[in-house]
Design brief:
- The protein is built from five helices and five strands.
- The protein has a three-stranded parallel sheet with strand order 3-4-5, sandwiched between helices. The protein has a two-stranded antiparallel ribbon with strand order 1-2.
- It has 143 residues and is an alpha/beta fold.
- The protein has one domain: von Willebrand factor, type A domain (Rossmann fold, 3-Layer(aba) Sandwich), CATH 3.40.50.
- Strand 1 and strand 2 form a beta hairpin.
Amino acid sequence: MGLFYFSGNDVKCAVPVGNFNYNLLKSKVNGLEANSNTPHGVSLAYAEREIDKTGYVDKSIVLLTDGMNNIGESPQGIFQSIIKTNESYGDSKTNLYIIAFNTDPEYFNRLKNDGAVVYEAKDGSELSRVLKENAELILEKIE
């Protein structure tokens, strides 16, 4: 498991992809701050590249966002490119889970049509519920 976050126009690594470390992950999540840019496409490309470096067969990306893509390439185009690249190299499928926090989940319909799973969380309590209900499923896919 790794943790990446939006930083201006880029994506930064808070926790490199590797073994699950709850305390490290919690401390990094608690240190994150929101900013105005939301580069979904760049984030998907970055996460896929980092996962591919590990050689893991089961690949999952969880995109937790409170906004729509507003900078860089579209997430739809990037995810379609990931799918095509995986198929052409005989690589395993990348599972994409999107948690739309206080964001219209309909915005992600094109990604959903390409196989992404989209969860809606309208507020903090719903976000907590979505994370709790799906943590085992998502983590099981990663391992």
